Automatic annotation (TrEMBL):
GO terms for molecular function: 3'-5' exonuclease activity; DNA binding; DNA-directed DNA polymerase activity. InterPro entries: DnaQ (IPR006054), Ribonucl_H (IPR013520), RNaseH-like_sf (IPR012337), RNaseH_sf (IPR036397). Its EC number is 2.7.7.7. It is an enzyme of class 2 (transferase). This is DNA-directed DNA polymerase. It catalyses: DNA(n) + a 2'-deoxyribonucleoside 5'-triphosphate = DNA(n+1) + diphosphate. SMART domains: EXOIII. One of its GO terms (cellular component) is cytosol. DNA polymerase III is a complex, multichain enzyme responsible for most of the replicative synthesis in bacteria. The epsilon subunit contain the editing function and is a proofreading 3'-5' exonuclease. Residues 4-144 form the Exonuclease domain. It comes from Novosphingobium pentaromativorans US6-1.
């Protein structure tokens, strides 16, 4: 995604999970043991995945869940983890923008009028395309600026939402009133008829 517009570039692959697919998971995404049996292992194509994402931020819905899986597989095949500093969680963005509302991908698609009628299963590529549209809406839509004559290039440069612990501590600056200001304030108070603080 560049300038909040999809580039058309995708990385889509099926992998053999080296385990039996739980029935409840298959019901969600429709991927059976038989279908995945002849697919490559993640380790065989990990370099393609890493080449694709390069050093870009990665947008995901409930991103911590996805990052745990990705980093486990990367570690297993000897690659460095993807830094969580690159994680852009659309659930966190939606909580800020729509506090108290339903935050599922389906709910956000409905809120923003994004068509998902062709979605019958939770496929990774289709979900990613829907989430890209949701992300654009969460960031304010496709209009990213009104500076005339200026080129704006934005390559999804989201960073983590700062918490109080992330902010550097700064000593508060002293703003004590001067003697003249205190005297002027006292004179002003004398001129106020029936002040509330004197009632």
């Amino acid at each position: 995604m560049v300038n909040r517009v999809l580039t058309g570039r995708t990385f889509h692959a099926y992998f053999n999970p080296e385990r039996t697919m739980p029935a409840e998971a298959e019901a969600v995404h429709g991927l059976s043991d038989a279908f995945l049996a002849d697919k490559p292992l993640f380790a065989e194509r990990a370099h393609e995945f890493l080449d694709f994402i390069e050093d870009s931020p990665m947008v995901a819905h409930n991103a911590g869940f996805d990052f745990n899986f990705i980093n486990f597989e990367l570690q297993t095949c000897g690659h460095a983890e993807v830094s969580r500093e690159r994680m852009v969680d659309t659930v966190a963005l939606a909580k800020v923008r729509h506090p108290g509302a339903k935050l599922s991908l389906d709910a956000l698609c409905t809120r923003y009028g994004i068509d998902r009628s062709h979605r019958t299963k939770h496929g990774a590529l289709l979900d990613a395309e829907l989430l890209a549209q949701v992300y654009v809406e969460l960031r304010g839509g496709r209009q990213i600026g009104l500076e005339l004559g200026a080129e704006i290039t934005e390559i999804v440069t989201e960073t983590k939402i700062l918490t109080r612990r992330d902010r550097p501590f700064r000593q508060p600056r002293s703003h004590a009133a001067t003697e003249e200001e205190l005297a002027a304030h006292a004179e002003f108070l004398k001129s106020v008829d029936t002040p509330l603080w004197g009632a």
